[in-house]
């Protein structure tokens, strides 16, 4: 019983951290869109939190697998696969050289913004799942 409480606290804290990472990235992207920061600052700020976000998410996914919590694991497994694929291809970082042209900057910004927004939605769902994890018994 004590390990379930520890798992719940860890999952809840990790989900809140993942929401914080995504919110920070969304704020940085909106700052670029309104010309508050330049593309080099954007890439350095977002690249600083990408790897920790991947590590927290991957660790949480493995923890759900090892503790046989199937629903949260199945929720996070496709994202873990996608993040692993991005990391292996070295495409997980934002390249500031790509942002030199204004049109390319807005195209990449809208694509990245949509991806970060979907991550934010999944992490929000994970907060609800981790909140009700002990009640569901899964």
TrEMBL record:
<protein>
    <recommendedName>
        <fullName>Protein cornichon homolog 1</fullName>
    </recommendedName>
</protein>
<keyword id="KW-1133">Transmembrane helix</keyword>
<feature type="transmembrane region" description="Helical">
    <location>
        <begin position="54"/>
        <end position="82"/>
    </location>
</feature>
<dbReference type="Pfam" id="PF03311">
    <property type="entry name" value="Cornichon"/>
</dbReference>
<dbReference type="InterPro" id="IPR003377">
    <property type="entry name" value="Cornichon"/>
</dbReference>
<keyword id="KW-0472">Membrane</keyword>
<comment type="similarity">
    <text>Belongs to the cornichon family.</text>
</comment>
<dbReference type="GO" id="GO:0016192">
    <property type="term" value="P:vesicle-mediated transport"/>
</dbReference>
<keyword id="KW-0812">Transmembrane</keyword>
<dbReference type="GO" id="GO:0016020">
    <property type="term" value="C:membrane"/>
</dbReference>
